Sequence to fold (615 residues):
Amino acid sequence: MIKKLFSNNTALYLIYSLLFGILFLFNANLYKIEQGIDYSWIFSINYAFANHFLWGKNLVFTYGPYGFLIFPKNISNNFLFHILYQTIFTICCSIVVFFFLNSFRNLKHKYLLILIPIFIYLIAFQPYEWRIFTFLILFLLLALNKKKSYYIFIVIGILLGFSTLIKFSIGLGVFPILILSCFLTNELQVFIKRLIYSVSSFSLSLIFFWFLYQNKIEGLKEYLLSGLYISKGYSSAMTLHIDHLLQSLAYFILLFILIILWIFQRRRDSNWQKLLILLPAFFVAWKASVVRQDMHMLSLIFFSIFTILILTVYSKVDNKFNKTGHYFAIAILLIVLGTLHSGVLQDVKEGTSAPILSWTSKNLVILDYLKKNYDIDIKYLRTIAIPENVIKKIGHSSIDFYPTENTFATDSGLNWQPRPIFQSYVAFTPELDSLNYNFFSKKPPEYLLFHYFQGFQSIDNRNILFDEPKTIVKIMDIYDLEGANGLYSILKLRSENRFGTKTMIFQDKMLWDEWYKVPQAENSIILASASWNKTIVEKAIRFMFREEPVSLSLKFSDNHIETFRIVSDNAISGLWINPFFSNGSDFNAFFNNQLTKNAQYIRFNGKKYSNSINL
Fold:
């Protein structure tokens, strides 16, 4: 009966697919306003949309102008746009899953009915933007299954252009795969048409949706360039190394080798080449997981399952599964072992991204977001509220919040003038550091709220002084202390600069993991500019794998040692050494000329491949 009902009935299959899409994919979220690095950047991108901030020249982050669509807050109409986005994404995914599976003419109905919910669920289980990534890869496979359906390449280009403005790394990861897919044909005419349609639709989509947001093209070039700088520095600055995950990663390396063998084992089949796009796609998932080994491992785990399922479907429809069944069995074993050693199952159990388990509770957000979450936000805002006398004193003067917590802008009526990199730990490279430096050099805000909730650390045991070296020196140069309360200080713009010109007082080479005496200079700021050479092999390791963290240790006169991670690419810009700040009290004492905390020795830790450091 089921066979008769669904046989040659596209409409019923689409309804069937949409039902599972609604059940698994439609996932309304509403992030409450709360203190913390992640909550703060989510607030910032939502606030930027609601207040028409300009991206590119004035605002730069890992997410783009439409990033709020997947991380909405109860600001203006942002949540309603999120619901619209979720609806469109759910419909598009459901349609693409059906048409992809339906493109295999000899796939039996019973397999179609089973595979539709499985594919939809695998997309739904992906964290955050990885849903978009997986969806686009599946869409590309559909396009390749239909040899001359050029309109599909046009649609993919449009969707990819828009997705790049949600998060730049989506475009950076998928665009090369889109270009590769154009080459996977033996006909020159087909290749040329695919390439023209793909590149032109992607470019026009990028321009159109940028203009739709900004009402001008200005800033798009800067957005793309800064996105490249962020991606370049991420492998070094955001490495999160967890020892117990090394074994897990080893299993996924073996899995990647197995996938390569599986694909090339099919090279006698006419359609084997299209499967080559799975290799760079797997690498993108791999790269995201090995750099920051926390919940990012989920993207690799579930994209691995997705890849194996794709290969299994192609093998089954070509009646080659019996010959490749051992690949499937080994692949599943490697995924299971890699997952068990990753430790992410515990995080999933505690409530991370389980669509079928949390669908009801998450989508009830639609019904109660106006009341419940608003109440939560108001309670939080009262805990971080800036005193009325301070707000009154600042008035309509411009203000920024440093280094990360921008939720102070909420409900305070302050005139927030954000710097381009509005969370300072994201200034991964000298180019990004220069964006903020130029901001404070040309048109700095009248006030700066400088907070230190966690001592003087920003993220991953990094000292605020070391995140963006040029910018922090500029801040200390042009601001004075106006007031402090133990959690933050209010700085006000000076009438003239505090510091004079930079002078090189010493130049030398030092070895890794060895103490080096800091030259002392009375009534001066001591900066240490450090650089080291990297071979082609070392650069390749950073690209393919990651760069291990580098830290800086400082020894003081009482032999007390403090060690902080540094952003290695930014070390050449001059790390602030003396006088040194470990907490808010040290910071405030500097402005009162009372700080006498000076490092006597420094030591760079971590790099083993360079013989010496240029200091």
Notes: Confidence is low (pLDDT under 50) at residues 1-6, 349-361.
